[in-house]
Amino acid sequence: MLDRRSFLSTAICATAFAPARVLAADKITPDDKSVLVVVDVQNCFLPGGSLAVKDGEKVIPVINRLSKAFANVVLTQDWHTPGHISFASSHAGKKPFDVVRLPYGDQVLWPDHCVQGTDGAALSKDLDVSKAQLVIRKGFHADVDSYSALLEADKKTNTGLSGYLKERGISKLFITGLATDFCVAWTAIDARMAGFDVYVIEDACRGIDAQGSLMKSWDAMNKAGVKKIQSDAIAA
Ligand code: VGL
Ligand code: ZN
Asked: Against a cut of 0.85, is the pTM above it?
């Protein structure tokens, strides 16, 4: 029989160790000013892809569920030219994950990925794209990378996403997708710089984590005023 004391300690332990649940009344209900941004859920970043993100496929059911709660959904697609400057194969003697100095700053070099029009650049067939209102492509200038969906790596060239969202009266971005420490983080930080309210939904993202980049990116996002939430904080 469970006496009162052991019942209490079980209850206390359960409370102490259970993941923090968000009460229904405290959940965020996306409104007309909110947009779900789905970053780079493309075959190259998924299992079998040339730049596969560990457990990348796990974001897909979470994103598909979340998208039902949003009136506005925007997708991004990494969309590089063949021989793009961010590819290690474009730099003699370099290998993926080496860093080179380019006119606009340090550039991590990647395996060839997301080449325009290839199957690797296609959005995952498991991603529910039915509600997407815009697909913004980035990284299509041969000599400039663009992790961010707003601003290319030269920090000067706009993709047009910020203007699109502002013209539509959208002020709150809920960001999901791949990879947390590169395209998600840069998109989130640039969106803060552009004056948006920004939430990154941690369990709807996965990171590459090259040399501690995942922790560093959360630190940078935090400093920029990006809010880290879990998908259960959204009334979906
Ligand atoms: C990405 C590295 C290179 C991303 C894109 O989607 O996070 N990472 N290109
Ligand atoms: Zn890329």
From this structure: yes
209 in catalytic set = no
Q: Write out pLDDT tens, residues 50-84.
A: 999 999 999 999 999 999 999 999 999 999 999 99
- Which residue from 164, 130, 139 is spatially nearest to 40, judged by alpha carbons? 139
Protein residue with least CA distance to atom 8, ligand 1? 182
Does residue 40 carry a catalytic annotation?
A: yes
Confidence at 10, pLDDT banded by 50, 70, 90: very low
Query: Quick one: tokens of 58?
Result: 């796990």
Sign of CA dihedral 116, 201, 58, 217: positive
Residue labelled with tokens 């340090």: 106
The per-residue pLDDT for 236 is 84
**How many angstroms separate the alpha carbon of residue 236 from the centre of ligand 1?**
28
Q: Report CA(141)–ligand 2 centroid distance (Å).
A: 11
Q: Above 60 in pLDDT, residue 218?
A: yes
CB of 40 closer than 6 angstroms to any ligand 1 atom:
yes
Q: Domains for the chain: give ranges and CATH numbers.
A: 29-82+123-233 (3.40.50.850)
Q: What pLDDT sits at residue 18? A: 67
151 three-state secondary structure: strand
Give me the amino acid identity at 137.
Answer: R
The rounded Cα 100 to chain-centroid distance in angstroms is 24
Smallest CA separation from ligand 1 atom 1, residue:
183
Ligand 1 centroid–CA 87 distance in Å is 11
